[in-house]
């Protein structure tokens, strides 16, 4: 395919340079956005009289036909094309002759590619947001089933205080809601029209940037033409949002991996979402969760690619910026793959409630409540803390728990203890009396679920 910029050059580009320079292999996925942008541009050219209205109509019809043929498979991408922009324009010229050549009037590939990537990411992030929302809704549904499922809450990976599995799940739902907010904010900042920025200094033609802005559903035109062609902040911002989603998935995956081990045995994955060993027949491995954890590093790498690519670039456009696409496309593909696999894995897992309850009973995680019991009886907290710590030490030495320690041993340390201490340190009491906003009590978690569903409905 002849290069659109060949007039200045006396030699053909080396074949290795052609391969090195080409982006059609990965930017072909933006064909729909490229064509829709060109339709808007051609419409504007006709409306402003920059080209004849009849020619603008022919260009729009020609582009519509190309889009239909690409959608149906009747037209294949030319691997020798430099990029999707040149492919579409060359195909249009092949179909319309000189009329097709008028499409690029008052436009540069620089503002064209800036437009395409914004349009593509705007569409792509809708899919990511929907996948995040579905996972968050799944967490809410599971939480409603486990409002009374007692488990240990941890700090430093040590059993700390009693919570419920519902409470734990809603922590991740809160993270995902923030993820949706980050995506929404990033898309809002991205939703400005760079078309009309030209190569870097706009154009001498009397274009109507407000018209293309309206036709393409942008909120406003980019105000500075240099910024219009050289800005990739939106790729970095959305890449960061995706990396944060992956971080949240990785944290949850780490817990699932631990919970599936015999040392915890809080969860058992469905056979459809686990794998076995080639040599050890007893194994049931949480490979999905492990791959999510591993792919998180890959998405971090995509974000670092974007940051490193932009860190030293002078204004305006530089060819380095072609590297934005593979990085952000990979981040999007990876997070979608992880989300759509992680959600059914979690949804079909079996929660081993008894094991969760047993682990909570063995960790002295009701020690704080024992101290609080004494405080409510009038003792200073520090005294209550010391007495309870001594009781825990006795339990450790004798192989007992606070629930099984006789009242006589309680009273030997402090006469304030009465029979009602056993109700106060019961795990269910410990969890369900933590009813302050955000806590693990049943009504508190139900309020968290209601809040989460309201938030999700807004996205």
Query: What is the count of structural domains?
Result: 3
| Mass-distribution shape | elongated
CATH-defined topology of the largest domain: Fumarase C, Chain A, domain 2
Describe the biggest sheet?
2 strands, antiparallel
Mean pLDDT across residues: 94
Number of helices: 20
Percentage of residues in strands: under 5%
Taking the alpha carbons of the first and last residues, their distance comes to 45 Å
Q: What series of H and E elements makes up the topology? A: HHHHHHHEEHEHEHHEHHEHHHHHHH
Q: CATH superfamily assignment of the largest domain?
A: Fumarase/aspartase (Central domain)
User: How are the strands of the largest sheet arranged?
Assistant: 1-2
Q: Provide the gyration radius in Å.
A: 30 Å
**Using DSSP, what is the number of strands?**
6
The CATH architecture of the largest domain comes to Up-down Bundle
CATH top level of the largest domain is Mainly Alpha
Amount of helix:
55-70%
Question: Structural class given helices, strands, pairing?
Answer: mainly alpha
Describe this protein's structure.
This protein has 459 residues and is mainly alpha-helical. The protein has three domains: 86 residues, Orthogonal Bundle (Fumarase C, Chain B, domain 1), CATH 1.10.275.10; 240 residues, Fumarase/aspartase (Central domain) (Fumarase C, Chain A, domain 2, Up-down Bundle); 96 residues, Fumarase/aspartase (C-terminal domain) (Ribonucleotide Reductase Protein R1, domain 1). The chain has 20 helices and six strands. The strands form three sheets. A two-stranded antiparallel ribbon has the order 1-2. β1 and β2 form a beta hairpin. α3 packs antiparallel against α4, α7 runs parallel beside α11 and α12 runs antiparallel to α13. The chain is elongated. The mean pLDDT is 94.
């Amino acid at each position: 395919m002849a290069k659109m910029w060949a007039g200045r050059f006396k030699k053909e580009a080396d074949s290795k340079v052609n391969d090195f320079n080409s982006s059609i292999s990965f930017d072909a996925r933006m064909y729909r956005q490229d064509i829709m942008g060109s339709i808007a541009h051609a419409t504007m050219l006709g409306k402003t009289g920059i080209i004849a209205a009849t020619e603008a109509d022919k260009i729009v019809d020609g582009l519509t036909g190309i889009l239909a043929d690409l959608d149906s498979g009747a037209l294949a991408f030319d691997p020798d094309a430099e990029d999707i922009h040149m492919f579409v324009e060359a195909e249009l010229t092949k179909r319309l002759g000189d009329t097709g050549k008028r499409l690029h009037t008052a436009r540069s590939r620089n503002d064209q590619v800036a437009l395409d990537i914004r349009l593509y990411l705007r569409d792509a992030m809708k899919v990511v947001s929907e996948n995040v929302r579905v996972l968050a809704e799944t967490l809410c549904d599971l939480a409603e089933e486990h409002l009374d499922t007692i488990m240990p809450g941890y700090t430093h990976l040590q059993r700390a205080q009693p919570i419920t599995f519902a409470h734990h799940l809603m922590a991740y739902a809160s993270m995902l809601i923030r993820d949706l907010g980050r995506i929404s904010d990033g898309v809002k900042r991205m939703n400005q029209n760079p078309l009309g920025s030209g190569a870097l200094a706009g154009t001498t033609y009397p274009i109507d940037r407000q018209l293309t802005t309206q036709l393409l559903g942008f909120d406003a035109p980019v105000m500075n033409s240099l910024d219009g062609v050289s800005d990739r902040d939106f790729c970095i911002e959305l890449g960061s949002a995706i990396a944060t989603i992956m971080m949240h998935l990785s944290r949850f995956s780490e817990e699932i991996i631990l919970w599936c081990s015999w040392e915890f045995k809080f969860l058992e994955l469905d056979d459809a979402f686990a794998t076995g060993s080639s040599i050890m027949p007893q194994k049931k491995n949480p490979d999905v969760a492990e791959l999510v954890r591993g792919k998180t590093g890959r998405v971090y790498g995509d974000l670092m690619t974007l940051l490193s690519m932009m860190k030293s670039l002078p204004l305006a456009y530089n060819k380095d910026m072609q590297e934005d696409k593979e990085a952000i496309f990979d981040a999007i593909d990876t997070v979608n793959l992880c989300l759509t696999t992680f959600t059914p894995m979690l949804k079909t897992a079996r929660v081993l409630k008894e094991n969760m309850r047993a682990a909570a009973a063995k960790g002295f995680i009701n020690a704080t409540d024992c101290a609080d019991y004494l405080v409510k009886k009038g003792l200073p907290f520090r005294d209550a803390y010391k007495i309870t710590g001594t009781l825990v030490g006795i339990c450790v030495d004798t192989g007992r728990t606070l629930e099984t320690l006789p009242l006589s041993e309680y009273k030997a340390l402090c006469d304030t203890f009465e029979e009602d201490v056993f109700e106060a340190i019961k795990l269910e009491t410990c969890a369900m009396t933590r009813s302050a906003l955000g806590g693990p009590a049943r009504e508190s978690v139900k309020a968290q679920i209601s809040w989460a569903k309201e938030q999700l409905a807004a996205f």
